[in-house]
Amino acid sequence: MKNIMLVCVAGMSTSLLVTKMQKAAKEQNVEAEIFAIAEGEVDKVLGSKSVDVMLLGPQIRYLKGSFETKYADKNIPIDVINMSDYGMMNGANVLEHALKLIG
């Protein structure tokens, strides 16, 4: 089971993307828990949950460096969702990117 966390300003704009990613995961027989949260919830969630990858919405790409530093001890790959895939809500591509980061 892969835990994929999407982070955006309020956790709302990524909720549709989560739905599309879940559909793609089901079609590909990938067992994954995919969820979206607001940037302010990251500490709380990482304190209580194991996450395999953190993907940031393009609108908070500026947080990538500080998140990488802050959560370095957790060894979680952190990247920004491709703006085109985000805009098109391409769940399959975003899922593929997340799985590559997990390795």
How helical, in percent, are the residues?
A: 40-55%
Quick one: CATH class? Answer: Alpha Beta
Structural class: alpha/beta
Distance between the termini: 13 Å
Proper CATH architecture: 3-Layer(aba) Sandwich
Backbone CA Rg: 12 Å
Find the CATH topology: Rossmann fold
Compute the number of structural domains: 1
Shape: globular
Strand arrangement within the widest β-sheet reads: 2-1-3-4
What is the strand content? 15-25%
Number of helices: 5
List the topology elements.
Layout: E1 2-8, H1 15-27, E2 32-38, H2 42-48, E3 53-56, H3 64-70, E4 78-80, H4 83-88, H5 91-102
Helix pairs in contact: 1-5
What characteristics describe this protein?
Rossmann fold; 103 residues; alpha/beta; 4 strands; four-stranded parallel beta sheet
Please describe what this structure looks like.
This protein is α/β, with parallel strands linked by helices. It has a single domain (2-102), classed as Rossmann fold. It contains 5 helices and 4 strands; from the N terminus they run βαβαβαβαα. It has helices at residues 15-27, 42-48, 64-70, 83-88, 91-102; strands spanning 2-8, 32-38, 53-56, 78-80. Strands 2-1-3-4 form a 4-stranded parallel β-sheet, sandwiched between helices. It is globular. The two termini are 13 Å apart.
